[in-house]
Design a protein that fits this description.
seven-stranded mixed beta sheet, mainly beta, 11 strands, globular
Length: 120
């Protein structure tokens, strides 16, 4: 069974950093676009960042995270990470990763999510 598992969430103070990791089983992430999404309480899910499949590697970022978040691949571990710096309370949400054919559409395999809480 294809599976994505997110890790790295937790409680952090404003201005702090976290690195989220998306690990895959029965799926080689290099061959897929991988996106990070988030859903805050009472809000709709939104796309945070995405990286297209290897040899393209085009990246996308939500405007509010540009310059603070970085998405990257770690091929040896078959993971895609989201480095989050200068975190703000409004970044608090459950973060999900998803994989599929293209960032522009077709991310069909989803993880269960990891909670990020930014609070003093």
């Amino acid at each position: 069974q294809v599976q994505l598992v997110e890790s790295g969430g937790g409680l952090v103070q404003p201005g702090g950093s976290l690195t989220l990791s998306c690990a895959a089983s029965r799926l080689i992430l290099d061959n897929y676009a991988v996106g990070w999404f988030r859903q805050a309480p009472g809000k709709e899910r939104e796309g945070v960042s995405c990286i297209n499949k290897i040899h393209d590697d085009t990246t996308y970022y939500l405007d509010s995270v540009k310059g603070r978040f970085t998405i990257s691949r770690y091929n040896a571990n078959n993971t895609v990470n989201l480095q989050m710096n200068s975190l703000k309370p409004e970044d608090t949400a459950v973060y999900y990763c998803a994989a599929g054919d293209f960032c522009e559409g077709g991310l069909e395999v989803w993880g269960q999510g990891t909670l990020v809480t930014v609070s003093p």
